[in-house]
Design brief:
The protein has 760 residues and is of the alpha+beta class. Helix content is 53%, strand content 22%. It has 24 helices and 23 strands. The radius of gyration is 49 Å and the shape is elongated.
Length: 760
């Protein structure tokens, strides 16, 4: 029940709107035709008065003519009022007023039959005038049934009364003529009314179609512009947003405003018009200019509104592909980097498709002595000394791929010259297909040297011990079957224990692995025991004092006749100092070594992050570029040590002046930058910049001397000034140079006519 009521209500609203719109259009048509009706009434009234003047008193005839002209004037006033303010009354009220005027005019014409006895010829003339008036009203008043009826009824009644009076009663010929006349009037009115209704319906359909087209034009996510004679006549919101304009700013402007220079604009126009005059669609990729001067790469599609006649107007579809082109360049660079890695990798790399070689790198070819043409498209049997080994290994790889696992194994292959070569092979399935193998990638690392070392290790344990002691490594020996572990004194020392500490106090080692490293380390060790491959892990072990030591752990396993691991032997090397140096190097790569502030690289990363956050949260970001005034003279007079002291002092003051969430960076000799996020308002940023300027201006004490520098500060805001990091910094830099030009030691926002403070 409720659904039916909602459906009825939703249907009734558009229907009521359509009816109101149709009524308004009918009233507009009715009143638009009124001047023609009034001109016709006035003309016929004057002619009628002239025709009847010999037979009627001048006073009576003048009074009738005055009334006719007065009614005409009143109707004209109604026309003028509607023309000036059509919304002043509702359509029904306008219609009622028009009907009242029509009734007054109809009664005026009907009153002709009451003016007195007239000759038969003049009576016939009056009858013809009334017929003419009634007939002419069908076209002029067809927009309103009330107005038509109000005019015609008095006229027809008067005409019937005239016939009745002249013939001494209503005869059947007279009645027939009256009925035929009434029928003609009504049918003519209905035909005109129906035609007008169809016209109104078509107008409503066209208006709705235009409204829908306009909605599509406004809502489509493709930029659309209409031009004529290279002047912009319309511009949808998406196109305006692409270039940073409002629609009103572009309509009526030359399309030249979207180009960087006249030559490019002229060339684009010549190319486009040549194609459009040929009746074809012009397509091109063009770099256009946004309002703020940034380039916008667009794919354009242009068509003439009239094919082959671009002078009648052109519709332009625009898609912003700036980001896509940037990503394509990035992808191209990434692919080039990947190709470089592929070509220069220290291991052999091979891509296979259904176990046949599709591609391999130069290292692979060099390891085995083949050319690509000799092995491309062949299966891997050429790697093996016999077919049985190749087939057995293939079964293992296929089963692993079917389980979604990677493969890793050591294998003795043969080169083209028949020489053995031991390789560590790792493989992954890239893409499965209808076959068993699909597409896979394998890496081949020459481990022949490692194999020889293992043999040497097994032959001479004492030599290995010497090497281990010389390398300051600690060893373990785990008898898996007996679950007994022995460790070397150096192993205990690495973890902070006394050299003679029993192994039972240190093992199990798994419990000493850092939680973040434990899962991967145990997984590597389990694979090592299962696959007979050496294990190499970089992990952290908990020392006696609770701290963690970074170690390299290398191990090998021995297997019994049944293939199960029975022994694991390995060594750990303390690389904590190396890791700390690496961390220090990483820190120095992102920090200024003198002040400890972020350097330009870290600053750019922080600014990218700040702008991304501001776009997401619709916030503000301020970039303050600070250049020290008088710094060079301090360097010249007191030396670089004094200059370094000033830079360190400025960095310290900046840390204590700006908010904790703000970023301070040193990007050059005496240049600092502050990123202020979510500052709240321009006034708050102004206050922060002044606070920074005052703090820097405080005197510094160095070696008993007082040093003083000033600060020229340029400020640029996102999103007011720019939305790109490099452009935002450039805007701040320009503002800073305006401060320098104006006398230094001040603050200026980009785009401001005057700086906020200038020290005299």
């Amino acid at each position: 029940m409720m659904r039916r009521m909602e459906t009825a209500a939703s249907t009734a609203v558009p229907a009521a709107q359509d009816k109101h719109s149709d009524d308004a259009r009918r009233v507009a048509v009715l009143l638009r035709l009124m001047p023609r009706s009034m001109a016709l009434n006035a003309t016929v009234s004057v002619i009628t008065a002239l025709m009847l003047s010999p037979d009627l008193p001048a006073g009576v005839l003048g009074m009738w003519l005055g009334v006719a002209l007065l009614v005409t004037a009143a109707r004209y006033s109604l026309y003028l009022l509607h023309r000036k303010a059509p919304q002043r009354f509702r359509p029904a009220q306008w219609d009622a007023a028009a009907a009242a005027g029509a009734f007054a005019m109809g009664c005026t014409w009907a009153s002709l039959t009451l003016l007195g006895p007239l000759p038969a010829s003049k009576t016939l003339f009056i009858a013809l005038v009334l017929c003419f008036a009634a007939q002419s009203s069908t076209g002029i008043l067809s927009a309103s049934a009330r107005a038509f009826a109000a005019f015609v009824i008095p006229v027809v009644v008067a005409l019937l009364a005239l016939l009745f009076r002249e013939f001494g009663g209503l005869t059947w010929p007279g009645a027939l003529v009256a009925l035929l006349f009434a029928f003609v009037l009504v049918t003519t009115f209905l035909d005109l009314r129906r035609a007008q209704a169809n016209s109104l319906h078509e107008a409503r359909v066209q208006a709705e179609s235009f409204r829908q087209q306009r909605l599509i034009f406004e809502a489509v996510q493709t930029g659309i512009a209409l031009t004529r004679d290279r002047v912009i006549t319309d511009f949808n919101p998406r196109a305006a947003a692409m270039f940073g304009y409002t629609r009103e700013e572009l309509i009526g402007k030359s399309s030249r405003v979207l180009f960087f220079d006249d030559a490019t604009w002229e060339q684009a126009g010549q190319q486009a018009f040549a194609t459009l005059f040929a009746g074809k669609t012009f397509r091109a990729e063009v770099t256009l200019r946004a309002k703020d001067g940034t380039p916008v790469t667009c794919e354009l599609s242009m068509d003439a509104l009239t094919p082959g006649r671009p002078d009648t107007g052109i519709v332009i579809m625009m898609n912003d592909v700036t980001e896509r082109r940037r990503l394509e360049v990035s992808l191209k660079d990434a692919l080039a980097q990947q190709q470089a890695v592929f070509d220069n990798a220290p291991v052999g790399i091979a891509f296979t498709r259904e176990r046949k070689l599709a591609l391999c790198n130069e290292r692979m070819l060099a390891m085995f002595g083949y050319t690509l043409e000799e092995i491309q498209g062949r299966d891997g049997s050429w790697l093996y000394a016999d077919q049985a080994s190749w087939k057995a290994r293939g079964v293992e790889i296929a089963q692993a791929f079917a389980r979604g696992e990677q493969v890793s194994f050591q294998e003795a292959f043969v080169t083209k010259q028949g020489q053995p070569i031991w390789c560590q092979v790792r493989g992954s399935q890239i893409e499965s297909s209808s076959g068993t193998w699909g597409t896979a990638v394998f890496t081949f690392a020459d481990v022949g040297e490692r194999k020889r070392m293992e043999e040497s290790l097994r032959e001479s344990r004492e030599q290995l011990d010497l090497v281990i002691r010389a390398s300051m490594a600690g060893t373990w020996d785990w008898d898996i079957a007996a679950d007994v572990t022995t460790i070397s004194p150096r192993f205990a020392e690495i973890l902070g224990f006394a050299p003679d500490t029993p192994a039972a106090e240190i093992v199990p080692l798994a419990a000493r692995i850092h939680p973040e490293d434990r899962e991967q380390a145990l997984r590597d060790f389990a694979r090592h025991l299962k696959s007979r491959e050496p294990v190499r892990s970089v992990l952290r072990l908990r020392a006696r004092d609770g701290s963690y030591r970074w170690v390299n752990a290398d191990g090998i396993s021995q297997h019994g006749p049944d293939g199960r691991a029975v022994r694991s032997i390995g060594a750990i090397s303390d690389i904590t100092a190396l890791k700390e140096r690496e961390a220090e190097i990483a820190r120095l790569a992102l920090e200024d070594p003198l002040t400890g502030l972020p350097n330009r690289r870290l600053f750019e990363d922080r600014l990218d992050h700040a702008l991304t956050s501001a776009r997401r949260n619709r916030g503000w970001v301020a970039v303050m570029l600070i250049d020290l005034d008088g710094f060079k003279s301090i360097n010249d007079q007191h030396g670089h040590e004094a200059g370094d002291a000033v830079l360190i002092g400025v960095a310290t003051r900046l840390r204590t002046t700006v908010r904790e969430a703000d970023t301070i960076a040193r990007t050059g000799g005496d240049e600092f930058i502050v990123i202020a996020e979510s500052a709240g308002s321009k006034a708050a940023i102004q206050a922060l910049a002044e606070k920074v300027r005052i703090a820097i201006g405080e005197p510094l004490s160095w070696c008993g001397k007082t040093l003083r520098v000033g600060a020229s500060i340029g400020v640029a805001l996102y999103p007011d000034d720019a939305d790109h990091p490099a452009q935002l910094v450039r805007m701040a830099d320009e503002a800073m140079y305006r401060v320098k030009e104006a006398g230094r030691d001040g603050v200026r926002f980009h785009g401001d006519a005057e700086q906020s403070h200038i020290k005299p």
